[in-house]
Design goal:
Layout (H helix, E strand, L loop, with lengths): L1 H11 L4 H8 L6 H16 L2 E11 L28 H13 L4 E6 L6 H16 L3 E5 L5 H9 L4 E3 L18 H13 L3 E3 L2 E3 L5 H14 L3 E6 L16 H14 L4 E4 L3 H5 L13 E3 L11 H10 L3 E2 L1
Parallel strand pairs: 1-2, 1-9, 1-10, 2-3, 3-4, 4-5, 6-7, 7-8, 8-9
Helix pairs in contact: 1-3, 2-8, 3-9, 4-5, 6-7, 8-9
Length: 320
């Protein structure tokens, strides 16, 4: 079955939902064969380079949204730093550090439903500075409309990030203050504004394998350029604080599933990969990933630039 689906990807580049469901049913005994096939797909369509990105949490906490997984929601009682939008100098210092770590993309991320007009003007100046450093500027600023996204593109923004998080069916179980359609509208607006789009999700929230397949189908239909894969880290004070971490092989199978379903798209490993994968962290490329978010995340720690560069070398890959 794995060989059949691998051949199907090599000819049509698009497997069906029923094909994808068959991948989710692969046993742990056959997982190595699945990873090998996903690795072949990665090598065929993404070659041997790994793209690195990094973020800055430019505005933290006090968010009015009620996302069940998020420590930054004002409706939760998590022990995190709360601060307003950072100044341009602080953001650019962090961007310079990322540049030294051979990062290609640097993203400004902020809490809240969406950036205000005043915040957008300040962020536009940050974007210009990031581009002047030689980095590709990205941003994750909430539910912006097309005109706001055009303004950011004209300021030098290259890519907009806005996660779907999960399937449309499961989404109401993790958020009630905005809708799945709100997210789709934002992503479509970014596309119409001429921006590259990064959109993926968070796994381990209680969703089913079918939810995971449905989200992959959604981002495929939206023609996003990069799909971030995040694994839930249960944080004290959030609704999902008591959930167990995903098993490493389940996490790796998610990566392979997305590589099969999106053979030509960036599959980007982001939050939770160290905590969930542990000693299996080096297998992300074998499972099909071709991009990494390096450095720290929003409210949790990641890996240092040096550690990730060493990992890439050990896997006989190169930084793209």
């Amino acid at each position: 079955m794995i060989q059949f689906l691998k051949n199907k990807v090599s000819t049509s580049k698009a497997i069906t939902k029923s094909d994808a469901i068959r991948i989710t049913e692969v046993s742990r005994t056959d997982a190595v064969d699945l990873f090998a096939a996903a690795n072949w797909i990665r090598e065929t369509y993404r070659k041997d380079s790994v793209e690195l990105c990094s973020i800055i949490n430019a505005k933290s906490g006090a968010c009015p949204e009620d996302c069940a997984y998020c420590a930054q929601s004002s409706k939760r009682k998590s022990n995190i730093a709360i601060y307003p939008l950072l100044n341009r100098e602080t953001v650019l210092r962090k961007a310079e550090e990322a540049l030294k770590g051979r990062v290609k993309r640097f993203s400004i991320v902020m809490s809240g439903r969406k950036a205000s007009p005043g915040e957008l003007k300040k962020i536009a100046e940050m974007i210009k500075g990031i581009r002047d450093l030689g980095l590709s500027p990205c941003a994750s600023l909430g539910l912006l409309n097309k005109d706001e996204l055009i303004f950011l593109r004209e300021s030098g923004l290259d890519r907009y990030h806005h996660n779907l998080e999960t399937s449309e069916k499961f989404f109401p179980k993790i958020c009630s203050t905005h809708t799945y359609r709100d997210k789709i509208t934002t992503i479509e607006g970014a596309r119409r504004a001429g921006l590259s789009v990064c959109s993926g999700g968070l796994f381990g929230m209680g969703e089913t394998w079918e939810d995971r397949v449905d989200m992959a189908l959604a981002v495929r239909q939206l023609k996003v350029d990069s799909v971030p894969i995040n694994f839930l880290i249960p944080i004290e004070g959030t609704t999902l604080a008591d959930r167990a971490l995903l098993h490493p092989f389940e996490a790796l199978k998610i990566i392979s599933l997305y590589r099969f379903m999106l053979p030509e798209t960036d599959i980007r490993m982001c939050g939770g990969r160290i905590q969930v994968l542990g000693d299996f962290a080096s297998m992300v490329f074998m499972a099909g990933a071709d991009s990494l978010m390096t450095g720290d995340y929003l409210t949790t720690t990641g890996r240092t630039f040096e550690d990730d560069l060493r990992l890439i070398r050990q896997c006989c890959l190169k930084v793209g």
